[in-house]
Automatic annotation (TrEMBL):
Any GO BP: methylation
Species, as recorded: Flagellimonas marinaquae
Pfam family, one: Methyltransf_23
MF-aspect GO terms: methyltransferase activity
Protein name in the entry: Methyltransferase
This protein's UniProt keywords: Methyltransferase, Transferase
Domain of life: Bacteria
Record Gene3D superfamilies: Vaccinia Virus protein VP39
InterPro entries listed in its UniProt record: SAM-dependent_MTases_sf
Length: 276
């Protein structure tokens, strides 16, 4: 592997990290990968584990999250004839599980962060801390919304999840795309890297190759259009730009426009099924 770039944890610790390029898989790997990774999530600034609306950025995140919930459930609904059961990995504060339940799924969620699980419980959503705590042993749909990049033992966790998927089941995975225009534009300031919480940084080639080793194939790829704007906004803030909203809007817009030709959006949703 070769050094791709140096960056730092802009949101929590300020520590520096390196991204190394795996040429065979065409993916980036965060180095070093901290042993006590949980410490980098124990912050009020890590909004995925809170329902905070203290700042404009917080409120914008919650707005985008609400809009994305409907888009996410539509993606899932389009893959199945009749909702049966669903497992959401990295369920955060439980909003997607709650939305899936409202749309007729028997939905389960796994979230290792205790604070996030407590917030989910206040919404009436009970989440498990580990996959092993789930009683159901097969699922029609398994979702990972910006979670795959967080998994410390990538190959082992993928093998476990594939084993839980029904033969005709669907796995839906959303991840940032380091091949996007905004990633290239912002370089080490790109918020999609989010080191060290993001341990892996995927391309289309990487997703296809990694899951092919588990007898899974990508059957469809969908963009997450809102991500280009939100990630650009955070990236501009990391750069210290006081007019971050204006600049982020134009960079996000151009990223989405250019992706209509390159197909390399800021974040991508992969629909995967088991090979026949």
């Amino acid at each position: 592997m070769s050094l791709f770039l140096k960056t730092k944890d802009f949101s929590v610790s300020g520590e520096e990290f390196e991204l190394h390029h795996d040429q065979d898989l065409d993916m980036l790997v965060t180095k070093p990968q901290p042993e006590s990774l949980d410490l980098y999530y124990e912050s009020e600034d890590y909004i995925s584990h809170t329902d905070a609306q203290n700042t404009f950025t917080d409120r914008l995140y919650q707005f985008v999250k609400r809009r994305n919930l409907q888009n996410k459930i539509q993606v899932v609904d389009n893959q199945v004839n009749k909702p049966i059961n669903l497992l959401d990995i990295g369920a955060g504060t439980g909003d997607f599980v709650l939305t899936a339940k409202k749309h007729g799924f028997e939905a389960f969620g796994v979230e290792p962060n205790n604070k996030a699980r407590e917030l989910a419980l206040k919404k009436g959503v009970g989440l498990s801390a580990k996959i092993e705590e789930i009683n159901t042993n097969s699922f029609q749909v398994i979702t990972l919304w910006h979670v795959l990049e967080h998994l410390p033992d990538l190959e082992k966790d993928i093998k476990t999840l594939v084993g839980l998927l029904e033969e005709d089941g669907v796995m839906v995975i959303a991840v940032p795309n380091f091949k996007s225009y905004d990633a290239n534009h912002y370089g080490s300031f790109w918020a999609g890297y989010d080191v060290p919480r993001h341990l892996w940084h995927f391309s289309k080639t990487a997703i296809a190759k990694i899951f092919a080793a588990h007898q899974m194939e990508v059957v469809k790829i969908r963009p997450m259009l809102f991500d280009a704007f939100y990630v650009s906004m955070l990236s501009e803030k990391y750069k210290g730009n006081k007019l971050y909203l204006i600049k982020a809007f134009f960079i996000g817009l151009w990223s989405n426009l250019s992706a209509f030709f390159t197909k390399e959006h800021s974040s991508l949703i992969y629909i995967l099924k088991k090979k026949k």
